[in-house]
Task: structure prediction
Amino acid sequence: MASTIARGDSDRDEVGPSPPGATPPRVSEWEEAPLVGVRVWGPQRGSRPLQQRAGRNERGRIEGVGSPPATRCSCASGREIRRGRVQPTAACTPSRPLELSTTSSMEPSTVVDGLREKLVQDGYAVVEGFLSAAECEALRVRAAQLVVSAQVPPECRVEFTTEEEEQVHAQGNADYFMTSGDKIRFFFEKGVFSRDGDFLVSKELAINKIGHALHALDPVFRDVTFSTKVKEVARKAGLQEPVVVQSMYIFKQPGIGGEVTPHQDASFLHTEPLGRVLGFWVALEDADLDNGCLWFLPGSHREGVSRRLVRRPDGEFPRTGFEGSEPPYPDEGFVAVPVKQGGLVLIHGEVVHRSSANRSPRSRHAYTFHLMEARGSQWSTRNWLQPTSALPFPHLY
Result:
């Protein structure tokens, strides 16, 4: 297929020019973090602690503190947050990668040997202490600013769900969802709108997630996504030419944060051949049994993909539909994976995982993004998410 991937010729190349009137980010420094332990583990809970120094980090300033960039939906007047360069390519073939130019200079963490082996064995792995408390707080603050500034007209208010029929109806019919791959957009919990589309609770508590281009369009999230420590983990996992295909900020609100039913990421992010998608899921707050931590079915990534969400031809409704079906999974097969703030969970694209509803008084914020190994891979043209001329899939390194 003809995928669109950003590539560059020199160190100064970027995904694209800054929006008109934008100012270069100002560099600020964070204090050096203390030594923290790092381990990789699976269902056996085996650990192998090492020492990591999360060194100085420089990040771009948050533009317009108190008045973040306006994020508009496509059916509303006003400029959307967009950034990118028109540079389509023929296919996901090897070439000189583009390294996104950011102000981040995070020193690499020390990642234990065996990371790739753990992913092959179980389909997931954990790196504890991946982000510092300060880094987690910076992402949380930025997400809160984006929500406050969000202008989402009633006709564009989409509730997020993983229930199959509701997903096809709520997301597949919505251009707001289908065209969110190169934008920053907002999706909400079930039951937070009146019939007229008005909020029944505050917007800050109604929000389910922000997606799907934080990694490219927001300087704070971009710095973390393209940081040295992320690149190091990707290399340890065996990725040669990874590209970032999407990113999300997930809120998992206290008391109302919805259940995410068992699923495989490759059902929504399909590649040919399979096995080319890797998810990075970072806990920005402690994730435990009470507030909806992740659960995995170890080894399930070796059994193929049971269903796919695919685009329907233009003019057909709903805009997406499922092929195949999710088989029943026994509850006793799942393993809970609680992680402390700053912990990273790596998720193989085909491993079955889920999370329970959050009935606790605590939120469970997380930042997650997905990489695809571009070397020798093809991104399915039937995926709901497609690269665009405005935002090709940028190379991680």
